[in-house]
Design a protein that fits this description.
With about 120 residues, the chain is mainly beta. Helix content is about 0%, strand content about 55%. It has no helices and 11 strands. Strands 2, 4, 5, 6, 9, 10 and 11 form a 7-stranded mixed sheet that branches. A 4-stranded antiparallel sheet has the order 1-3-8-7, with no helix packed on it. The protein is elongated. The N and C termini lie far apart (about 40 Å).
């Protein structure tokens, strides 16, 4: 099964920026996405990107976050600008792992993003 390695989380002041990375151990992946889960809340989609580069964003992050991917490196990125305290959450990478009989959703371990002054 594909393994995901996430990096780039941390503490940032309001208005600051962070870039998250998600590297997959296998190239048999389709769509990649970033979800986030704040304390006491359900996990929600932040942004997603198809293999061909079509993107989808949650309304709350549109205009501030940019998702991209490098298919040669099996890696997705989430550039987050103008971060606000409400963006504080654990961010999880998710990929569609494609195998002979179908596909399955695979999750990373999560990386903490804290926006605070």
């Amino acid at each position: 099964q594909v393994q995901l390695v996430e990096s780039g989380g941390g503490l940032v002041q309001p208005g600051g920026s962070l870039t998250l990375s998600c590297a997959a151990s296998d190239s048999s992946i389709g769509a990649m996405g970033w979800f986030r889960q704040a304390p006491g809340k359900q996990r929600e989609l932040a942004a997603a990107i198809t293999y061909s580069g079509k993107t989808n964003y949650a309304e709350a992050v549109k205009g501030r976050f940019t998702i991209s991917r490098d298919n040669a490196k099996n890696t997705a990125y989430l550039q987050m600008n103008n971060l606000q305290p409400e963006d504080t959450a654990v961010y999880f990478c998710n990929v569609d792992y494609i195998y002979a009989w179908g596909s399955k959703s695979v999750w990373g371990q999560g990386t903490q993003v804290t926006v605070s002054s």
